[in-house]
Write a structure and sequence with these properties.
The protein is an alpha/beta fold. About 50% of the residues are buried. The chain folds into two domains: about 130 residues, Aspartate Aminotransferase, domain 1, CATH 3.90.1150.10; about 240 residues, Type I PLP-dependent aspartate aminotransferase-like (Major domain) (Aspartate Aminotransferase, domain 2, 3-Layer(aba) Sandwich), CATH 3.40.640. Helix 6 links the parallel strand 4 and strand 5. It is built from 15 helices and 13 strands. The longest helix has 19 residues. The model has no long low-confidence stretch (mean pLDDT about 95).
Length: about 400
Amino acid sequence: MNQTLESWLGDQIQELHDRHLYKVPKILETPAGGRVRMNGREVVNLSSNNYLGLANHPNVKQAAAEAVERWGVGAGAVRWIGGTMSVHDELEERLARFKRVESVLVFTGGFTANSGCIPAVLTNQDVVISDELNHASIIDGVRLSPAAYRKSEGWVYAHKDMDALDDCLRRASEKGFAKKMVITDGVFSMDGDIAPLPQIVDLCEEHDAFLMVDDAHASGVLGKNGAGTASHFDLYGRVDIQLGTLSKALGVVGGYIAGSKRLKEWLINRGRPYLFSTAHPPMVAAALIASLDIMENDPEPMNRLWENTRRWKAMLAEAGFDTMGSETPITPVYVGDEAKAQEMERLLFEEGVYALAIVYPTVALGKARLRTMPSAAHTEQDLADALAAFIKVRDRLG
C-alpha cells in the first residue's frame, strides 16, 4: 500500500477518535425486528427503519422465495440492456397507482434515485433551492448537477422558513434562470419533523418553480396507506417529482422516482445510476409487490406504528427528555455534546438498548442526539424496557 495514503488515512481516523466522531457498525445476528441479537447481546432495537415490520412478514418472505424459484437470483444486466423483467415492470406499475402518478422508475437505492434524477433534470441555466436540513443524498445529487445551488450564493433556505423560500424564489426569478427547482425532504430524517408542503407548493406555483419531495421517511408512515406527504396533505397532482424508498417501511431495498410519463422516459435515457447499475434481483421486486399488498390492504401495521410512536414520545416527554419537536416515528433524544452522545449509546447498549448516536457530519457540531425509531414490531414491554435504560443511563451520566 502507498505509505503516503496510509499515513493520511491514519491521521484522519485518529482525528475522528479525538473529536468523538468515530463510528463502528454493530453486527445484526438475527432478522431485523423490535428486539434483536447484535454483537452477541439481546437488545431492544431503536435504530431500524423497518417501520412496519415488513422485512420479516411471512407473505413478503414467501414472495421472495417463490420469485427465486421462478426467476433465479439475478437479472443479469442493467435495466435498459436486458435486465428489465416483467416483475420489475409490475412493481413500477403498482407503485405508480399507489402514488397516484402517471409513472414510476425504480432505482437500486434512494441515494441513487436522487443522484440519478436531480442532475438529469437540471442544466447550467437552472437553479436549485434547497432546505438547509435536506438529506445527504439530496445534497450530493445537487452537487452532481451543473445548476446554481450554493448556500454562499443564497440558494439554501433556513429550515422550513417560508419567508426565506419566498425570497429565494423572487431572487431566482429576477436573475432569469431557465428553470427553478425547489427540493425538500417530506419528513426530515434527523429531526423527525414534516415539511410545510402546502405552503411550499403554493410558493412554487406562484413563482413558476417545480417541486421535488424526498419522501424516504414518509413512505409507509404518512398519507393514505402510507403513500407519503403529498397524500398526507391531499396535494395529488401538485408535486412534480416524488422520491420514495423501498428499504424502510416496505422492508426490502431500493428507491424510486414518481412523476410524469415524460419524466420517466427522460430518466431512462439520462439517469446515470439507472443506465449503469444492474437491475434488482427479481426476488426484490416480488417481495416489494407483496409489501405493497400488505400496506394497501392491512391497516394494522401502520396503526401499530403510530400507537407505539405516540406511546414512546409520551414516555420520553414524561421522563424529561427533549425530542426536538418530532412529529413522526423518528424521535431524536437531544444530547448536544458528541462525546456524551457516544457514551450514552455505549451505556445503553450495555443496558440492552440499541439507540444510535448521531453526530457530525450527519448533524451539525454541538447538536448530537440519540435517534430512536419506534416501529410496528415493538411491544409495550420493549418500549418500557428502553425507557428504563434511558433513565438509568441519563442519571449515571448526570
